[in-house]
Design a protein that fits this description.
Rossmann fold; 3 domains; six-stranded parallel beta sheet; seven-stranded parallel beta sheet; 24 helices; 569 residues; alpha/beta
Length: 569
């Protein structure tokens, strides 16, 4: 038999056409329904906001009244405006509490406010009968800001927004029976303890999910010389070629100046092709935008609206941390960071804008450059940039979650991909990362073999594996192919991945861990066979084999196969 709580949840779902209340959402709602404080941590895109959206309706059903109201603390005006618009579209009354609001209307069910407003200009309104008699819940959205912004900075000795650390004072002004819910996507175990203490939570329930987002592949690309145009040429070309069908990308920058530099680069490079469907000159249809603390409110609203729609015209946004918290970003599967975030928590928050549906394969690409980790970057974030085992492991370590994600293989991160033996690794790499790594390999050696295609790499890997199988003898039964032949899968993977720098057998011997000259020579012959044949085939389809382009592609491979001499090692 359905209990009272479940019956009320069913009625709310039917009334507001909520398709599903997931288990973690139900656990939070039930705890608050029963008067308990809740610490609620769940990944971005997991529907944390549903808890405060439907709770006043649940409370009305329970009491038989219609005046239930919740206070929601939110860090950004743009985020508050977005949430209010969403609630009003459902026919619900929500207001943004500011110094201009003299009284709270009786039909209001959602009172959004900043910590500063609640503790200064509008503090007195917390003591009015409207609040004291009708408030049923106090929700703090983006609760990690209590620590991130509320505590004093180690260098400046000042807090960015000190009122965040004083939200416990707001709690003391409200009826003792009103439960507190702190919501966040990212809080380490230490941060959770501090938040509980600062807010005065007691007899509280913890609903804590792992911040791991399995549909996001993490990668780091280091650029020794940071050429903005070269780094973002792939995205520029995508917009130029595909207009509003271009991939949607969020680009996080460490400084507002970096946003401006990128905006200027795209403006100069794209010109009239930077506007949707031939609407040159209308800033409202520009396909790239900036979003930071100094961006005009109407521009912010336009960007947020576009990103809340699957096919919004804004395809690329250059932003700071001001963009993203709590925003329901749709149709975005690639997040780029130009330089690291200040902390692991920030990086998880920001990269979590990608693939919020939890299903589509998405990518978080971090571009590092000389001295980018100097300044206010945490040690954990520096380790993430420099580690050599697994990106995901380093991201999740501070949260004390023990998980097995060994099954993810190359879908986990760039480091796991480098040790994967399958043939699909390249296909699972983001198009931006492929572009960046191609640019790096082109710059890393004088004698580059250009235009090594994914299909050529697959052919190389297949033929090298075939050659490996010819080396098998009876010893393999006892030791395995890798040990008995010395021609390992890892060696094949490294050669194919870095074939762009191979200009001869001497480079193979110098750069890779071959155990004998015979393996070097046979590998060289296989590479030459594939690249020379493909290049000659291409030249026959477009013109004479003496064309300059064909000569450039094949100059290292037109030779007679090398034969191992009898006195070779």
């Amino acid at each position: 038999m359905m209990n009272e709580f479940d019956e009320h949840v069913r009625l709310v779902k039917d009334k507001f056409r909520v398709s599903e209340v997931r288990e973690h959402q139900r656990n939070v709602l039930e705890a608050v329904y029963n008067g308990k404080d809740v610490f609620f941590m769940a990944p971005t895109g997991s529907g944390k906001s549903l808890s405060y959206e439907i709770f006043p309706i649940l409370s009305d059903l329970r009491t038989g009244k219609s005046d239930s109201m919740v206070i929601v603390v939110s860090p950004l005006t743009a985020l508050i405006d977005s949430q209010i618009e969403k609630l009003k579209a459902c026919g619900l009354c929500a207001i943004h509490l500011t110094s201009e609001v003299e009284s709270i209307p009786p039909q209001c069910k959602y009172l959004f406010a900043s910590p500063e407003t609640l503790l200064t200009t509008n503090r007195h309104q917390l003591l009015t009968p409207r609040v004291q008699n009708s408030l049923v819940g106090f929700f703090i959205d983006e609760g990690h800001c209590i620590i991130k912004w509320g505590k004093n900075d180690a260098k400046t000795k000042k807090a960015f927004r000190g009122h965040y650390a004083r939200l416990g004072e707001v709690r003391s002004l409200l009826p003792a029976s009103v439960p507190l819910v702190v919501m966040t996507a990212t809080a380490t175990a230490a941060a959770r303890r501090d938040i509980v203490k600062l807010t005065g939570m007691h007899n509280y329930a913890e609903v804590v999910l792992s911040p791991n987002r399995r549909n996001i592949r993490y990668s780091v690309v280091h650029l020794p010389k940071f050429d903005l145009y070269a780094a973002f040429k792939h995205i520029i070309d995508d917009i130029e070629d595909n207009n509003t069908s271009a991939e949607r990308v969020i680009v996080y920058c460490r400084k507002k100046e970096h946003c401006s530099d990128l905006f200027e680069l795209f403006s100069t490079t794209l010109g009239e092709k930077g506007f949707a469907n031939g609407t040159f000159g209308d800033d409202r249809t520009r396909m790239y935008a900036m979003f930071h603390s100094k961006t005009q409110d109407d521009v912010k609203s336009s960007v947020l609206k576009s990103f809340s729609e699957e096919n919004g015209h804004v395809r690329v946004v250059f932003c700071t941390v001001a963009f993203g918290m709590g925003i329901d970003v749709k149709g975005t599967y690639c997040v780029v960071h130009v330089g690291p975030s200040n902390s692991i928590e920030d990086y998880l928050q920001e990269s979590g804008r990608a693939g919020r549906d939890g299903k589509s394969q998405s990518h978080a690409v971090l571009i590092t450059y000389p001295r980018c980790t100097s300044g206010n970057v945490s040690d954990e974030m520096k380790d993430y940039c420099k580690n050599t085992d697994c990106r995901r492991k380093r991201l999740l370590e501070p949260f004390n979650f023990v998980e097995d994600y060994s099954d993810m293989g190359h879908k986990c991160c760039d480091l796991c991909s480098s040790s994967c033996d399958c043939l699909d690794c390249y296909q699972c790499t983001s198009s931006l990362e492929k572009s960046l790594r191609t640019m790096l390999s082109t710059e890393s050696a004088e004698n580059i073999i250009h235009h090594v295609t994914p299909s050529q790499k697959l052919d190389m890997q297949s033929k090298l594996l075939d050659y490996r199988n010819t080396l098998v003898d009876e010893r393999t039964l006892f030791h395995g192919i890798d040990i008995s032949t010395g021609f390992t899968r890892a060696l094949i993977h490294d050669v194919v991945k870095n074939v762009g720098i191979v200009s001869g057998p001497d480079i193979l011997k110098e750069k890779f861990n071959f155990i004998c000259q015979e393996h070097v020579i046979e590998t060289w012959n296989i590479l030459c066979e594939i690249l020379e044949n493909d290049s000659l085939s291409d030249s026959e389809s477009v013109g004479s084999s003496s064309d300059s382009d064909t000569e450039t592609i094949t100059k290292h491979f037109r030779r007679r196969p090398l034969i191992l001499s009898s006195d070779s090692e």
